[in-house]
Amino acid sequence: MNAVNTTQIQAIAIIISIFFLLMILYLIKNKRIKEEYSLLWIFFSIVFVVFSLWREGLDYIANYIGIAYPPAALFLILLMAIFLILIEFSIIISKLSDKNKTLAQEIGLMKLEMKMMKEKIEKRKSKQSGNQLAETSS
Amino acid sequence: MKKKSSDILIIIPTFNESANISGLIERVKETYPGWDILVVNDASTDGSGGIAESTGKAFVINLPYNLGIGGSVQTGFKYARNKGYQIALQFDGDGQHKVSEIKKLVKPLKDGEADVVIGSRFNRKSDGFKTQYVRRIGIKIFEWFSFLLIRQKITDHTSGFRAYNRKVFCFLADNYPTDFPEPEVVILLGHNGFKMKEVFTQMLRRQGGASSIPLAKGPYYMIKVMLSMFMASIRSKIIKEEKI
Q1: What is the pLDDT of residue B62?
Q2: Residue B1 falls within a domain, yes or no?
Q3: How much helix, strand and coil, in percent to the nearest 5, is found in chain A?
Q4: What is the distance in angstroms between the Cα of B69 and the nearest Cα belonging to chain A?
Q5: Of A15, A111, A113, B226, which residue is 20 to 30 A from B113 by alpha carbon distance?
Q6: Are the Cβ atoms of A105 and B62 closer than 8 angstroms?
Q7: Spatial CA neighbour of B121 closest among B180, B93, B161
């Protein structure tokens, strides 16, 4: 009974982790995620596929680190994955907001520049038309 | 406002100061007719930008969305750098600083005494600006902490009344912190070997608007700022020691 249950769980784990991996690959294929931001996702979904196929691996690692209850090793890996990916997000957001700021500043500077150029051109135009008027009247 | 007419640029960052801004521009222009004014309108929602433009006495940069005080002031530095100014002043748009004291900040720069001059409320014993007790504690902690980090005594880290020479604002145009930038800038500049000097300036009660640091956010502000100050001091120097 017990053995049946564990193979059942293993089957579910394999299906879910493979589904997860395929989903990530599909999103990259459709350009919904950029390759450079998906490396961690791919890495950890492969890790999960590996551990769902190779059950002794988990026992081995748990034993090696000294975790009494092997499934807890899975939680450890999961937490690490989430942490790393969230940190990566913070890095990306910081970089983006920095670039965003520079862009906004550049736009502000350019708007002023453009306004001054426009004024200059208009002034020259009105001067020219003024000259023409003067010529025709004389 | 048509052309650059001076070597000195007074940068006024503004956010929703429609009540004060035109009067302020008039007063500054009256007192310092030869100097240029740049208003950086940080996406105000009350038409401050248009009001500033209508005076015809200031250059006005309208930012497309709100960047905060750091981003606004930095925009001013970029402008000053691009246009070849020699001295840039930061003068807050909320009417807390005295227009008549602007020249006090410029003089030490012209005399070459320092690269940065900070208008301080505190570096004189008497008739200073009365701040709340809690705020004073915070300011003292900054003084002590920054002396520990850069060994220059600065008494007013949160002052937004400052003058910079060209060397400094060109540096800051590329390296200006965003969130509550003033104390961090002190460390950044000290760490990169710029000479700072404080000048006593009076401070007026703000005429409108609220402090950028409400008391409830005090602890968050202190921790955030001290973290950035510390980080600024352990980053590798952006300006390398000059080889002699």
Answers
A1: 95
A2: no
A3: 90, 0, 10
A4: 12
A5: B226
A6: no
A7: B161
Q: How many CB pairs under 8 A join A and B?
A: 36
Q: Which residues contact B222 (CB under 8 A, 6 or more apart)?
A: B138, B141
Q: Is residue B16 part of a domain?
A: yes
pLDDT of residue B158: 86
Is B243 among the domain residues? no
A80-89 average pLDDT score: 93
DSSP character at residue B58? S
CA B46 to each of CA A27, B16, B18, B41, B85: distance values in angstroms, whole numbers, following the listed order: 44, 6, 6, 11, 30
Interface touch B67/A107, C-beta < 8 Å: no
Nearest-angstrom CA–CA distance, B63 and A104: 6
Q: How many domains does chain B have?
A: 1
In order of A88, A110, B67, B174, the CA distances from A94 in angstroms are 10, 24, 14, 16
> What's the Rg (C-alpha) of chain B?
17
Domain that holds residue B64: 8-234
Considering just the CA atoms, what is the radius of gyration of chain A in Å? 31
Q: Are B59 and B173 in contact (CB under 8 A)?
A: no
On chain A, the residues whose CB falls within 8 A of the CB of B74 are 105
Rounded Cα distance between A123 and B226, Å, is 52
The CB density around residue B162, as the number of other CB atoms within 10 Å, is 26
pLDDT (0 to 100) of residue A71: 81
* CATH number, domain containing residue B23: 3.90.550.10
Establish whether this prediction's ipTM goes over 0.90: no
Using the beta-carbon criterion (under 8 Å), do B61 and A112 form an inter-chain contact? yes
